[in-house]
């Protein structure tokens, strides 16, 4: 199975912010959309970073009184790990586990086309296992 399978189910909406937005803006976006990370893009839509709840908490731990006024560009993770629509779900799961990341933007030509979370991947794997179990039950019963 490919990442595109997940995107077909969940959709391709990805919430983004410019690097000039503040952490206050980022927190508002995360809360408004009930998400755990926001992709940071430049004016041309190119991925330049990702800001997760973990990044925000680290900033709050360093300087609680000033953190929320910091620009996203100063707090985000650069060198974003991405995948493509054609990447296998097993590969995405392995990379997320090994790198200890929970969100992976889906990119084509460095342009954002979707995002998958570890929750999306686990949900898909559970559905796949349930389907296999049902097929086996039907096979045994016949």
TrEMBL record:
Coiled coil: none annotated. Residues 8-68, 76-134 form the CBS domain. It comes from the Bacteria. Keywords: CBS domain. SMART domains: CBS. PANTHER family: CBS DOMAIN-CONTAINING PROTEIN, CBS DOMAIN-CONTAINING PROTEIN CBSX3, MITOCHONDRIAL. This is CBS domain-containing protein.
């Amino acid at each position: 199975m490919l990442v595109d399978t997940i995107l077909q189910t969940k959709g391709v909406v990805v919430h983004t912010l410019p690097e000039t937005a503040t952490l206050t803006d980022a927190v508002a976006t995360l809360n408004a959309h009930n998400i755990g990370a926001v992709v940071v893009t430049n004016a041309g839509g190119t991925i330049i970073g990702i800001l997760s709840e973990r990044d925000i908490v680290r900033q709050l731990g360093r300087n609680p009184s000033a953190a929320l006024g910091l620009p996203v560009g100063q707090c985000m993770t650069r060198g974003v790990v991405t995948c493509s629509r054609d990447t296998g779900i097993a590969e995405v799961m392995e990379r997320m586990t090994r790198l200890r990341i929970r969100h992976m933007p889906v990119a084509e030509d460095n342009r954002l086309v979707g995002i998958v979370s570890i929750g999306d991947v686990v949900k898909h794997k559970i559905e796949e296992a349930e389907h296999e179990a049902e097929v086996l039950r039907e096979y045994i019963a016949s």
